[in-house]
Amino acid sequence: MLIRLHKMNTKTGSRLHFLAAVFLLVSIASLGAQTVEEYPLRPIDPNLKANESPAERVVFRPRSVDDHGFNRTLLETTFATLTIYRPAPENNRGTAIVACPGGGYGAVVIDREGHWIARYFQKLGYTVVVLKYRLPKPGVTGDALPLSQQDALEAIRYARAHAAAWGVKRVGIMGGSAGGHLAGSTAFFGQAGDGSRPDFVALLYPVICMDPPYAHRGSRDNLLGPSPSPERVAEYSLERRARPGLPPFFLVHAKDDKVVPIENSRLLADALRKVNVPVTLIEYNTGSHGFSLGRAPGHETGGWKDDFVKWLDALP
């Protein structure tokens, strides 16, 4: 809303105008408003020169656009940011969700699996933090934690550090496809002591396995390199890392997914159940891969949103 205050010549007019303006501003504040702000995940290096900063690329895809008409994919991301969607104060449900877009660890599908999801859940009263993460560079990091995982853990810590200011009591994480692997891995690598362990995990058609026959080869190669050691493969095969005490999981997958087979979600769900970690797996007959908020109006894949909200409400 744009408010223009026009000058008035009389003292009485000025006083009345001032009181009216104050009343209007107070009324707006009392109604509250949703906000969207973007921040760097880490402080910018003041010594970085313009010609030393690699420029990421943006690809605009004309199909499968989101509610704003966008379907952008970011390539060569090297600078992590957080875009924070906060609900109106009177609608705040006290939960923050870090959203990790997919892209096979070779790109970031920032609109359909980031901003689109954030806008939807913001309207329902959730704080959503869209993570634009650095893409992995296994040749640079070696056996250390991949850059993408470093950023996801830091995003959870950031949300916890701002929880009081946001009116948030719990911080979870969500991701689709390779972003699902990234989100899921924070449950295994996160630590309660430093605030990086999520309170819940929601995964949409996630990459889970790093071993054939169900691995998504592109995600595995981009994350671990073309010839990872068996130990490295085991470390990032999430279904092989289930243990008691993990946060609850919510998984959604379509049976006809030819990109990331549904066995990824099934194997993780089975492994979690065996160690008594709460898990819900919703399977759809159709929907293929990358359906985001739903394949089409009325399609069964759109039902996960309501189921997820009910699941969240039932968490202790």
Q: What share of the residues lie within helices?
A: 25-40%
In N-to-C order, the SSE pattern is HEEEEEHEHHHEHEHHEHEH
Q: State which percent range the strand residues make up.
A: 15-25%
* Second-tier CATH architecture: 3-Layer(aba) Sandwich
- What's the total count of β strands? 10
Largest sheet: 8 strands, mixed
What structural class do helix, strand and pairing data support?
alpha/beta
Using only C-alpha atoms, the radius of gyration works out to 22 Å
**CATH superfamily caption:** Alpha/Beta hydrolase fold, catalytic domain
Q: What's the CATH class label?
A: Alpha Beta
Please tell me what the overall shape is.
Answer: globular
CATH topology label: Rossmann fold
Mean pLDDT: 90
Q: Poorly predicted ranges (pLDDT <50, ≥5 residues)? A: 1-31
Supply the number of structural domains.
1
Major beta sheet, strand line-up: 1-4-6-5-7-8-9-10
Q: What distance separates the N and C termini? A: 39 Å
Q: Count every helix, treating DSSP H or I runs of 4 or more residues as helices.
A: 10
Domain Alpha/beta hydrolase fold-3: 102-292
Pfam families: Abhydrolase_3
Keywords: Hydrolase
GO molecular function: hydrolase activity
